[in-house]
Amino acid sequence: MRQIVCLSTSNFHPYPTRKQNVMRRLPDARILYFDPPVSYLAPLKDKAAKARLFAYKQSGEQAEPHITVYALPPVLPFANKFRCVNRLNQRRLAKYIRRRMAEQGFTQPLLWCYSPSSADILSRLPHRALVYDCVDRHSAYAGIIDPAVVDGMERDLARAADMVFCTAQGLYETLIGYNPRTCMIANGVNYELFAQAADDNDVIDSSAKQKPVFGFVGMLQDCIAYDYVLALADAYPAGEIRMIGRALPGVDISALRQRTNIKLLGLMPQRDLPAQMREFDVCLNIFAPGRLSRDVSPLKFYEYLATGKPVVSTREPLQVGDYADMIYIADDREGFVRQCRAALAESGSEKKRLRIAAAKAASWDNRVAEMVAKLAAEHIWEDI
């Protein structure tokens, strides 16, 4: 059976992202999944991070029959600004990971990385092959970061990889310059789950057009176009905008709280989302322009498609342009309101059929099968 060590950028719990969905579906594999480490300074920004400082002292959690999850030790801050700090951090993390590998009998696993910072751990972890799965423009994140340092680490990681996957065309155009074994595979959807939010009607009830429910699912972060949300709230004072997800530390959503028709529902378990989304009349995919937004592959977008409901999106991420025949795309706030109005007036079943078909094609089962096929073609997907 294959042995895989996954160095993730997302905690395995509570909300599944690409990392968990991929790892859960890789066939015939035992996986050690390492949650990302927190900085010693993290509790100053997010009090919830304090408990994570010591989580690494616990034994691994058997999250799935084939997946054991570990927390990593805390690290020094400023690693994305000074590479020498990152090297110190990765040396400490490697020592911990090697100990866990030995406990589990892992000798030469497939190393599967999601962060550019992993470039400095490669020489310290035994592995038979390396996969870099790039899901974001990491150097575009806000915070204490030097984009040149992050881009340099990513370059080194991509060049060392036996296979590079990425989620967006812009990322592909960068990474293919570092490694010819680069393949773009966008994010996907748990189709069977989110299709439960679909209804049997092809026409929105006329009363909904007067008091519609516009829905957003996802983290409330800096790259969201909150001015579009406010404009929509003004245009439909009798309607509701339901936003499911928590605000990341430091993100100011005070303007949203002042609107009585914007409902901030917080983070919910994924299993509860279909019931909530079934009540949406229109799904919102709203990103502010920027390097991060341009190259993102939002999970929510594919989840929206699976519901069959109308989707209104900003022009970024650029990936939405591939679905222009089945969704509504806006270039500014006024256009966003107009497109929401058009989405409410949608009639017939053709766009709905296209959305559902696109979601089926983008199922995580299909995405992971494509990954495995690419790895097999390069003789990477082999038992040890």
- What is the average per-residue confidence, as pLDDT, rounded to a whole number? 95
- Residues in β-strands, percent: 15-25%
Number of helices: 15
H-E string = EHEHEEHEEHEHEHHEHEHEHEHHEEHHH
Task: Assign a percent range to the helix content.
Answer: 25-40%
| Overall 3D shape | globular
Distance between the termini: 7 Å
Trace the largest sheet across and list its strands.
3-4-2-1-5-6-7-8
Rounded to an integer in angstroms, the radius of gyration calculated over CA atoms is 21 Å
Note poorly predicted spans: none
Largest sheet: 8 strands, mixed
Structure summary, number of beta strands? 14
What class would the helix/strand composition place it in?
Answer: alpha/beta
Please describe what this structure looks like.
Strand 1, helix 1 and strand 2 (29-34) form a beta-alpha-beta unit. The protein has 384 residues and is an alpha/beta fold. The protein has helices at residues 18-25, 42-45, 83-104, 147-160, 169-175, 191-194, 206-210, 226-235, 254-257, 273-277, 291-294, 299-307, 333-344, 350-361, 364-377, and strands at 2-7, 29-34, 61-64, 67-70, 110-113, 129-134, 163-166, 182-184, 213-217, 240-244, 262-266, 282-285, 311-314, 328-330. Helix 8 crosses helix 13 (333-344) and helix 12 crosses helix 14 (350-361). It contains 15 helices and 14 strands.
